[in-house]
Amino acid sequence: MLDSSIKNGLTSPNSTEESKKIDVASHFILRAAYCRTEELRRWFIAQEGRLFRHRLEGITRFNSSGSVNLLREFLVRNEFSLDTVTMKEKERLRRNLLSVPGSPNPMEFNATEYCKVPFVQALELVKKRECYVEKGFAYVPLPNIVSTVCEKFRASLSKSLALASQIFGQVADEEHTRIGPLLTSMNTQYTGSGAPSAITDANGENLVTAATVDALAARNMPLCMQQLHSGLKRDHKLKHQGRLQFGLFLKGAGMSMDEHLLYFQREFTKIMTAEQFTKQYSYSIRHMHGKEGKRASYTPYNCTKIIFGNAPQAAVEHHGCPYKHYDDQNLSALLTKLNIGTVPERDAILSLKKEGHYQLACQKHFEVMHPDAKYAEGVKLDNVGNHPNDWFSASVSYHNAKTGVKPAIEEVEE
Ligand code: SF4
After folding, report:
1. Closest CA to 220 of 266, 254, 260
2. Ligand 1 atom closest to Cα of 362?
3. What is the pLDDT of residues 286-297, one digit of tens each?
4. 115 pairs with which residues across the strands?
5. Which secondary structure element, helix H or strand E, spans residue 133, and what is its range?
6. 83 within 8 A of 140, measured Cβ to Cβ
7. Does residue 301 sit in helix, strand or coil?
8. CB distance 56 to ligand 1 below 6 Å
9. Which atom number of ligand 1 is nearest to the Cα of residue 323?
10. Are 362 and 223 in contact (CB under 8 A)?
11. What pTM was estimated for this model as a whole?
12. I need a surface site. Which of 12, 29, 261, 372 has the fewest CB within 10 A?
């Protein structure tokens, strides 16, 4: 089975035996956790498909006979049968095959192995006109077979996940109390750097206050939080989900409860009285900071929780992830309105979104707005695209590094 290829040698080539085992185990654990809904399955297939392609391209990158042998070995081991084109047929098609963009040069042609696959299995190459098609078959040089193998991997994984979903209920039912909650909550768990970082300014004071939020939103917040911020400024209120997503984000970034209350009260009282605000909304803000109710510590939402959470239902709801929840047209208009990058850069962001790589689209947005961030001192990029607070911290550190201000980030008190 091709979808067990991770087990059969497509882990990272530099992995130790131990890390290969962990890699394989984590794949199958995630498979169990992400089989349960159509949306989770789609997300998992997109991520695993991308990782699979990255590793497979790693094998074929050098296009040498050694790398072609490795690829062939991998295909044989995974029972991926390819119809090899005979020398006679290759000669017959020589002119057509050589006319395809990216085909081997005439010197290499004889030594290049060609495969013949039904054209529906090579749609990516057909779309880019990177293979010759005749009588329903695509003729593909072996080193270019990656996209066909990836397509098959995705189809195979999709089938396995659909089968797994049928028995998910039995595995995760109430009797299996240890594994059930673990599997059902895995997509909302955050495994990043731990507690989000509260950011302080050069004087050691919290950077995020009622006075600074507006400027920080425009310059340093990821798209989801920018949208919540502009929704709040426009409507002078936020619906429940939006108050939670934005409020916990601000808390995680170090905004104190008093500043939080002050900021929200200032906006809300543009359309209601101070008494109404106190009665209806201040309790939930104090609750978020652990000062009411069961005094629990609430942490900010990570990207997967936002992406898989409820989608905004109406124009007055601003929560969610724009990369996931906006349609292509709306997102494109928003990126243009916010002046994010050049047209090709916006196209690159949009094409990641269209392929379902929402978090990569968000990372690309960060890259575009923070050129050369990886060379800037003190900027941690690891969780950009995984957690809005990490996007924010990285952006603040980046601008501090550019202006020579020493970033001051500390663990937030829970
Ligand atoms: Fe926000 Fe995460 Fe979506 Fe980026 S990927 S917009 S940080 S939820």
Report:
1. 254
2. 4
3. 999 998 888 887
4. 84, 140
5. strand 132-134
6. no
7. coil
8. no
9. 3
10. yes
11. 0.70
12. 372
